Sequence to fold (208 residues):
Amino acid sequence: MTEIFFSVQGEADAAGWPTVFVRLTGCPLRCTWCDTAYAFHGGQWWTIEAILAEVARHGARHVCVTGGEPLAQKRCLILLRRLCDAGYEVSLETSGAIDVAPVDPRVRKVVDLKAPGSGELERNRWDNLAHLAPRDQVKFVLADRTDYEWARETVRRHALAARCMVLFSPVHGSLAPRDLAEWILADGLPVRFQLQLHKLLWGEESGR
Fold:
């Protein structure tokens, strides 16, 4: 475990809700724009009971399990199930490089498909798309026009907007948000533009 903290959710369909973030340690990917590299190593071992107790202490309805890549830890699946059993609205932020089929169906999966600019394009596990439900989301973090065009064609090729919510987000400090918004409008894409609310509020120290 890297950290557990209470903040405002900055992304996806739960943006704006007070949320407890459970950040697990470790990630097999090394995206060029990653700003949570501090979660790659270190951390401390927590029991699931201790995690549940710490989450409960904050009194929030929403819980986000993130990383790193949380699914790199096998017991993450147990944690997700226990959080759902406890009555929380649970979301999972995952790279999509690991099989999401075993994830409890009560969990909202936010799958971050990797565009070329991430340096991890080949790690996308395309069969994960078949396991997405309408409550889930696919996120594209885009660094430039090349990334955008790749994402646009991926959305069309896989009819992603008919499957679940699709999110386009600019890499903070690399792609001007206005440019991305104008590209989406010009192409009439059925996607949701998003900015990282937590960075607008608290800046770089807030993480990704």
